[in-house]
Amino acid sequence: MAARRALFQLSSRTLAISAPKEPIRHSLRVLGKESTRCLRTATIAACRTSSQVQRIEQRRWHSTPSEVQKPKVYNFEDIQSLSSSPSPSRILIDVREPAELSASGTIPTAINIPVTSQPDALALPPDEFYDRFGFDKPSPEAEVVFYCKAGVRSSAAAQLALQNGYEKVGNYRGSWLDWEKRGGRKEAV
Predict the structure, then answer these.
(1) Are residue 18 and residue 93 in the same domain, yes or no?
(2) Residue of 91, 115, 148, 157 marked active site
(3) Which of 10, 48, 64, 71 falls between 20 and 30 A from 171, CA-CA?
(4) Number of structural domains, the chain?
């Protein structure tokens, strides 16, 4: 019990010594021609060198792309026609894990690239992609359409594809649950 009390007293003294005297706002302080950014852990006194502070500007440090590209949304009929007439320029990608495919099957002509365990797959060089998956990496010029079980992972995979330079990207939002509910053809894995 005495050791606990001593530890508490020591920690409260350390807290009093190390705590900043005044809270700092994230701001850009312009000092003449130089500018310094005061961090949250510093004290205001440490950021002020004298009365040289001319103005305080609040800044938001983020960027937004000027043109946000969104994947094309596919429905059951679109996927049905895609699976019945496959083309090397349009690739259907199932992003579920292999165990899920074994349990429920897959849409015919779909290839499997599991996004949860392999999120970097589309960023891999073609030879490493082939070594890992056993088939050629989809070309960035090809149209890639993603689906999963309920549409969440396929949305993430579509965004990853866009970030990795794929321009023709689609997402089957209904995914496997919609396909199964509407009686779409299944292929055993």
Answers:
(1) no
(2) 148
(3) 64
(4) 2
What CA–CA distance (Å, rounded) separates 22 from 44?
Answer: 6
111 and 42 share a domain? Answer: no
pTM over 0.85: no
Token pair in block for residue 8: 């508490």
**How far, in Å, CA of 147 to CA of 100, rounded?**
13
- Tokens read off for 16: 């009093």
The domain of 84 spans 72-181
Nearest to 171, CA basis, from 85, 32, 74, 49: 74
148 catalytic per annotation? yes
Helix (H, G, I), strand (E, B) or coil at 111: strand
